[in-house]
Specification:
Blueprint (H helix, E strand, L loop, with lengths): L1 E9 L5 E5 L2 E5 L7 E7 L2 E9 L25 H18 L19 E9 L2 E7 L6 E3 L8 H5 L1 H11 L6 E8 L2 E7 L6 H14 L3 E4 L2 E4 L5 E4 L2 E4 L10 H14 L5 E5 L7 H4 L4 E6 L2 H13 L6 E5 L9 H4 L4 E4 L7 H9 L4 E6 L2 H13 L3 E8 L9 E7 L6
Parallel strand pairs: 10-11, 15-16, 15-18, 16-17, 18-19
Antiparallel strand pairs: 1-2, 1-4, 2-3, 4-5, 6-7, 6-9, 7-8, 9-10, 11-12, 13-14, 19-21, 20-21
Helix pairs in contact: 1-10, 3-4, 9-10
Length: 413
Amino acid sequence: MSTRFTVTRLGSQGDGIAEADGGEVFIPFTLPGETVTAARQKDRATLMSVLEASPLRVDPACRHFTDCGGCALQHFEAEAYRQWKRERVVQALKAKGIAGEVEAVVPCAPHTRRRVVFSARRAEAGMLLGFVRALSSEIIPIEECPISLPAIVAALDRLRRLADLVCATPKAFHMTVTVTASGLDVAVQDAGKLGENQRRIASNFVLAEGLARLSIDGEVIVEPKKPVVQFGSVAVAVPPGAFLQATEAAEQTMAALVGQHLSRAKKVADLFAGCGSFALRLAAKSEVHAVEGDAPALAALDRAFRFASGLKRVTSERRDLFRRPLTFKELNVFDGLVFDPPRAGAEDQSKQIARSDVPLVAAVSCNPVTLARDLRILLDGGYQLKSVTPIDQFLWSPHVEAVALLEKPRRRR
């Protein structure tokens, strides 16, 4: 049975929130000020119809919107959407008592996402390849995707056929597709164990279709062309399933902010360095010590540095910074530092940075809540917040990237 609701605000995941008997009700694909009917189940409801639409409601860019679970906010007018994302960062900082100007959101253009994770499963009607419906295990097959680079969309049929060739399980599995300078890099996870004949057929398909690489659960099955991405002037051959920023434009924006802030530093630490998106750019002006827990990523960074020219020295260290953060004594040899941890943030590492004498720090995060927590630690340790720049790397999703820049007067030793 449907119920009438008035939406008052958006929640942190982009759902409209309505006040009702028994508490708040979360209604996806609605906007503040709208009157809607929705079918309620406890604190969530499925939108049935919009009775009074917000003036900020716009036509979605994709036919799969509301079904596939990949986007939450295509119906939200662009400027208001970006203001909402900025406010997510503002409110997270405010919750930790952090004042300071938050810059306008750096926008993300459609058709720019270079790394997409598809879900796949063999069904009676054939191979399903797409995204999972929100709060469901149902895979919605897709024919278009306005967030992704055209090279990924153009390959959807080929990727679906490849998924069918590598599928050795009745369960759903994942296929990560990355656009590189060499072509599409396809990393499959949890598709089951392939027999020799199946491997041969899949390899021949990759060769025939001009894909750069196929890997399954980290094992390279075939690699006609080594997948390469560009970090500034340096070409990096990335390992299977390597983490990359979702869009090249966002990565360049973050790197520019970090690089400008650390431009005076002669010796820089790059923590959670990945394959070197910051380290290899910073090495144009500074000596860099890159610290990363993932061995293949660190090896790719080191190999790229050794084959590059015109860079200052880059050293690397494999280290789990969650279990063993760099101590403040180790950090004190650096003039600058950048850290870009996973969504969980870097609480223990931030405590060591806070105790250090490093004068210039750049904090990069895809989670405003953990960013605010880590910034609070740094501010309590004597750092001053100079700027916070939100970056809309994940278009039409509730996620927002941010770069925070901090300074601390150098203590005399």
